[in-house]
Amino acid sequence: MTGETIILETFEGSRYDTGERRSKYHTPPCMCLPLKVGDDLLGVMNINNFSQERFYEVDYQMAIITSEYLTMALNNCRLYMQVREMSERDGLTGLYNHAHFQKILESEIRRAERYHGELALIMIDLDGFKRVNDQFGHLVGNAVLEEFSRVLLSNMREGVDVLARYGGDEFAILLPETGLEGGRQYAERLRTKIAEQPFTSMEATGTAFLTISVGVAGFEPGKNRQQLTLEADQALYESKRAGRNRVSVFQPASEYKL
Predict the structure, then answer these.
(1) Which pLDDT belongs to residue 208?
(2) Is residue 38 within 8 Å of residue 56, measured between CB atoms?
(3) What is the helix, strand, coil percentage profile of the chain, to 5?
(4) CA-CA distances (angstroms) from residue 19 to 2, 12, 13, 14, 16?
C-alpha cells in the first residue's frame, strides 16, 4: 500500500485493472482513503458510489472529514489497548502481572465451578535467586528472570495455560482443564527440565544451571481464589522447607511430614 487517496470514476481501463474478465461484476465509482497517523497506516476507508456515475467535490470533502474522524477513533482505540496491555503486563518479562493474573484466576475458578471442570494452580520460586542479585547485581538478575520466563513460556499450551510473574522471583502458572495429579506431573516435568537446561544468563555466576521449588494446588467445588492461592503457597513453602528443587502438592497441614 502506498498510503495515497485513490478516486476512480471507472475501474475498467485504470492502472488497477489487470484485464481479467468481469462479465458479471461491475465496479462503480469508488474512493479509497488511507487512515493514517504519521507513517502508521491504521486502515483504509472504501466508498462505492452505486447511485450516480461520478463523485462530486462535496462527496470528496465529506469523505475526507469522515476519514479524519475514523482515524481519530482508531488511534484512540489503539492507544487505549496499548495502555491496557501495559497495565496487565510485567515491565521486565512481558508476562502477566500479579493483579491481572488474579482477575484471570477468578474467572477460571468461576468457569470450573459452573461447568464442573478441573483447574490446577502452580507456584514457582527460583532457588537461590537472592544470592544472584546480591553477588552479581540486578542486571544479571534481570537477565536470568527474562531467560527463565522464556523457558516457562516454551513449555506451556499456547492459548490455554496462563503464566504470570507473581512477584520478585516467584511465578504462577494456571492450568485449565487439568486436575491436581496432572498439575503435579506437569510441574515435575518442568522442574526436571529447568534443572537440566543451562542458562546463558547464569554464566557470570560461575554456573549455568538453576533449580526451582514448586507448589501445586487443585480446585475443588466451593474453593475460592484466596483459598486456592493459599494452598499453592503452602505447598511451595513445603518444597522450600524440605530442601528446595522439588515439587510439593498441597495437603492439610497435619499430613505434612515434620
Answers:
(1) 86
(2) no
(3) 45, 20, 35
(4) 22, 8, 8, 10, 9
Which cell numbers in the block locate residue 30?
Answer: 469508488
Backbone angles phi, psi at 224, to 5 degrees: -100, 180
C-alpha cell at 210: 538453576
- CA–CA gap between residue 236 and residue 167 (Å, rounded): 14
Of 174, 195, 192, whose CA–CA distance to 183 is shortest? 174
Return d(Cα 122, Cα 131) in angstroms, integer: 24
Residue 9 and residue 54 in contact, taking contact as beta carbons nearer than 8 Å: yes
pTM of the model: 0.74
Distance CA 151, CA 109 (A): 26
Residue given cell 461520478 in the structure block: 54
**Residue whose entry in the numeric block shows the C-alpha cell 511451595:** 236
On the 0-12 / 13-18 / 19+ scale of CB atoms within 10 A, 213 is: buried
* Cβ atoms of 257 and 241 closer than 8 Å: no
Can you spell out the DSSP letters for 49-63?
--SSSS--HHHHHHH
Strand partners, 214: 124, 247
Give residue-wise pLDDT tens across range 193-230: 999 999 999 887 888 899 999 999 999 999 999 999 99
